[in-house]
Amino acid sequence: MNALELLNVWKLYGEVIAVKNLSFECKKSEFFAILGPSGCGKTSTLRMIAGLEKVSRGKILIDGKIVNDLTPAQRNTAMAFENFGLYPHMTVFENIAYPLRIRNFSPFEVRQQVLKFAKTLEIENILTLKPINLSEGQKQRVSLARALVRNPSVFLLDEPLSHLEVSLRLRMRAELKRLLHVLGATTILVTHDQLEALTMADRVAVLNEGVLQQLGSPSDLYLKPANLFVAGFVGEPPMNFFKCRVAVREGQFLLFGSNNFSFSISKELYDWLCNFNLETYIVGVRPNQLYIVNDRLEGKFKAVVYVIEPLGERTLISLKLDDNLIRLETKPYIQLKISEEVVVGFDEKNLLFFNAENGQLLLR
Amino acid sequence: MATLKLIDITKKYGNVVAINKLNLEVKSEELLVIFGPSGAGKTTLLKIIAGVEKPNEGQIFFDERNLNSLPLEQRNIAMVFENYALYPHFTVFENLAFPLRSPRQVPRLSKNEVKARVAKIAEMLEIQDCLYRKPGQLSGGQRQRVALGRALVRRPSLYLLDEPIAHLDAKLRHRMRGELKKLQKDMKVTTIYATPDYLEGLGMADRVVFLYQGEILQVGTPNEIYNRPSNVIVGTLVGDPPMNFFDCKLKQIERTWVLEILGGRLPLPYELGANIAKKIYLETAGPDLIVGIRPNACKVENNSTEGTFPGEVYVSEPLGANTILTLKTGDAIWKVKLEGLYHFQVGQHILVRIPTEALHFFTKDTKQRINLEANYERS
Amino acid sequence: MKSRGLGYFITRFFLVVWVIFALFPLYWTLITAFKTPIQIYKGPFYFPFIDFAPSTNSWQFIFFGDGRIDFLRGLLNSILYAFFSALLSVLLGSISAYGLARYSYKYGPFKNDNLNFLIVSQRIMPPIVAVIALYLIFKFLHLLDSGFGMILAYTWFNLPLAVYLLTNFFASIPREIEYAAALDGYSKFDQLRKVILPLAAPGLASAYLLSFFFAWNEFLMALMLTFRDAQTLPIIITTIRTQMEPKWWILSAIAVIALIPPSIVVLYLDKYLIKGTLFGGVR
To answer: Tell me: the pLDDT tens digits for B37-68?
Structure first.
């Protein structure tokens, strides 16, 4: 039995379709992320799961039961908020105990549960303090303990780290991932930050304009993006895209984008592409899969250096080719000048091909 | 030659010292990044340079002219405010055209010239479709771009950009980073750019000023800031994941210099060890020091050899083409960044090699970098 | 679609009842203006043309008959005093308000907040306390029963409120917007003209409206400080009576007319009273 299941869920605000026919399931103790740009429907989805919004069409099941008509309180879900929402006038112990007390657990059981979670989250020594005296990290743990102390079926997180400052965010991300793993909580995380989704989740659902683009593990999303949107959204810096056709010239199999961007490909690749019988293809290649070569023969195309951004452990070079900007990642100690012409190479294996009409990935 | 000089600038808000005796020189036509976490004083500093805030002490010289008493409208500075400060009653077009229509705009521009310039900037920032809307009808990202456009539409002596692309979505932000850098080079206008994002800072800068709690910790090229952080704070905040720091002791065992680190021993090349020993014993008369190493410098090994240390996998974070492991060794928690996607289980025990060439050394009490002789420094 | 419960109809019913209750006095006054004395005393008659035959005798009296001189003089005076005193209040008030909102003053121990209180506290005191002193001052300055004097008095009366309203309003305009205009090369005066005043329009309009209404309805000071030439409409209304009781039919007509100038002002200024002029300017 799945902890959470969405079956053909739609959400309409008047005429506007916010979520379109969304279906997925989430297993117990799984860390599931819903990823997408602002306005894609992820927050609406989370709110429907929580019970804060009504489902326009379709069913939501928690632990196998249909919950469409249940109030948030009846659904056995827990939700964490951006600034933790701790009760400032209560001690840490009381904060964590609160959800149990209002459900009439006996004082003995309350104490037992609170101590158990405090031990797992390593906050036993701050149980008597008030939130104002806690660090951000401690507050996060208390907030987690309070949300999970009553063993909800699903734990919902809405962009929990976006308001945090960069350095703190990195630490909290790892912490949060570990704590949730240790507690075995079934978690649904909603975010627009693809880094966050990829590092934390077991599986990710990518949404765009209310429609599910891809559902898979982080490595699936990165290595085999189902369509152009996912390919361009996942991965930093973003993937480079080129519009191309296949051609044969003087016995050579070519991928032809423009006069400046054409290079030879292997027969296998050519044959495989011809199977799809398409006029144009969109080729995708990640910045870290391109490299600068010295030899024209080894390389695939020429481009002009537009901007050089040294980023510490690597350097990001933007190249200009036919009015397009191509991004390339290299090792830090490269000597290049602006407006210099360079030759770029890549491995044919790393290329991803998409159908130019519908944006879908062509699987090899 | 538009050079900006800040001399002993101090700014207090009540008892809180926001900027403390700050000295800085900005070279003509350079893109200077002011990098620091939130609360470091970046916005305050920019406001002082713009003239929006007055310093309690200190002087500002721009092109040898003392700016202290010069009114805002005469400074010929364009600024992008952290909170945009758009004119809510004007359309986007009017917001962008407003600076071009001011009485100080010399030479006077004709209606068509104004229109052309606005159109060019709007296109670069991808807001040409919103030109006739008002700021209240735009999204946060669009508003930010209008604020940026309003500064870029002019050609002043100095640009002050306060986190100008912080609220754009990732893809647009990436593009704008490159475009802004290129634009600055083309326009040849001295620019000061404040950001808490170290990638943005390193990528754009000719030089970086590391500001922390109102004080400058380091000034240098992006390379210098990344490869030779002047103290522990700089090392922590520049780099993702942050540099690992360990409290160590330097001891001499038989004739080898050895670093006691992570509950184990790391032998150092003789000259390196001797050099460090000389420096720390001179200053602190003790064997304690702090050693830093970047997560991406460490490698996972299969065999336990000299220079490898054990670690228990605490968290494993796959990151596209890399994997970040958080490890626990004894009481220490540290991070390792590996190229490629790995699947380690939580609780798994692995071995990590720490190369001595990649170590950074800092004194224990002042947390300052121990500078060694040239041949032992990374280039 | 939820079915409309009983609650919905009960709410609607009570709302209708309340509306009738609230609008009734207005309606009654209006029809009374079209009644003859006899119809009023015989009454009550509720519907013109159905219960009673409307007549225009009140209207003729105030516009063309014996009441003409007093009525028209009162109307004109009221309009002039309200219009100009509100204008002065807003003009002078906005200057003070901008200063209090943007600059830090220190006169000995008095800082901005103290100055604010000093100004606003003028209105805490009921005018009746000051009117007697005002009478003596006006007498000394030969300002009694003069339009100039009344405008001055009403401005004094309205200024504190205008300053209070406008200080808050100017303070709510983010400073960065002014700095942005300054950095864009505009002098203080130009900033005020092109940026601040347009953004403060709702505040200026509401300050004007409130000042206008206060002056329009004011009775006590008009009573004490005028005898004849400078009398306002509220005063005129009190003179329209027989020995026993007021002449309701004429009063009603005057009351109806008295509604018109304020309504015109509201209609005109309404377009400036938009909410959220500042929205979108800052994050």
So the answer is: 888 899 999 999 999 999 999 999 998 888 88
A&B contacts, CB < 8 Å: 103
- Name the residue among B326, B317, B331, B332 with its Cα closest to residue B347: B326
pLDDT in tens, B361-377: 998 888 888 887 654 44
B-chain residues near A36 (CB < 8 A): none
Last residue of a domain, one of C15, C38, C60: C60
Q: What is the number of domains present in chain A?
A: 2
pLDDT digits (tens, 9 = 90+) for B158-203: 999 999 998 887 888 888 998 999 999 999 999 999 999 998 999 9
Give the CA distances from residue A153 to residues A181, A200, A281, C77, C92, in Å, rounded to whole numbers and listed in that order.
15, 19, 45, 76, 65
User: Does residue C5 sit at the B interface (CB-CB below 8 Å)?
Assistant: no
Q: Which residue of B has its CA nearest to C182?
A: B73
Of A186, A211, A233, the one marking the end of a domain is A233
H or E element at residue B148: helix B140-152
Instruction: Verify that C181 and C268 share a domain, yes or no.
Output: yes
| Beta-bridge partner residues of A353 | A283
A190, A210, A233: which is the final residue of a domain?
A: A233
Residues of B in contact with C179 (CB under 8 A): 50, 52, 72, 79, 81, 85
Chain A residue set in contact with B, beta carbons under 8 Å: 37-38, 165-167, 170, 173-174, 177-178, 181, 192-195, 198-200, 218-219, 222, 232-238, 286, 288, 306-307, 309-313, 316, 318, 325, 327, 332-333, 338
Q: What is the pLDDT of residues C198-254, one digit of tens each?
A: 999 999 999 999 999 999 999 999 999 998 889 999 999 888 877 778 888 899 999
ipTM confidence score: 0.83
Q: Are residues C174 and C132 in the same domain?
A: yes
Of B126, B133, B135, nearest in space to B85 by CA: B135
- Domains annotated for chain B, with CATH where assigned, are 4-231 (3.40.50.300), 244-376 (2.40.50.140)
Give me the domain span that covers residue A86: 4-233
Let me know whether A139 and A275 are in one domain. no
Same domain, yes or no, for A276 and A306? yes
Mean pLDDT of chain C: 90
Q: Cβ contact (<8 Å) for A236 and B320?
A: yes
| pLDDT for res A82 | 65
Check whether residue A311 and residue A209 sit in a common domain: no
A26 with A169, same domain: the answer is yes
Nearest chain B Cα distance for residue A279, angstroms: 28
Say whether C183 and B75 touch across the interface (CB within 8 A): yes
Q: Is B223 on the interface with A (CB under 8 A)?
A: yes
Do C125 and C236 have their domain in common? yes
Mean pLDDT value across chain B: 89
Q: Which of A199, A286, A311 sits opposite B317 (nearest CB)?
A: A199
Structural domains in chain C (count) = 2
Residues A200 and A254 in one domain: no
pTM above 0.90, yes or no: no
Beta strands in chain B (DSSP E): 4-13, 16-26, 31-35, 57-62, 65-66, 77-80, 158-162, 190-195, 207-212, 215-220, 244-253, 256-261, 264-268, 288-293, 299-301, 308-319, 322-329, 332-339, 349-353, 360-363
- Chain A residues within an 8 Å CB radius of B235: none
Contact C232, C221 (CB under 8 A): no
What is the torsional sign of CA B250, B251, B256, B258?
negative
CB B247 within 8 A of CB A177: no
- Whether C73 and C146 map to the same domain: the answer is yes
Query: Do residues C18 and C158 share a domain?
Result: no
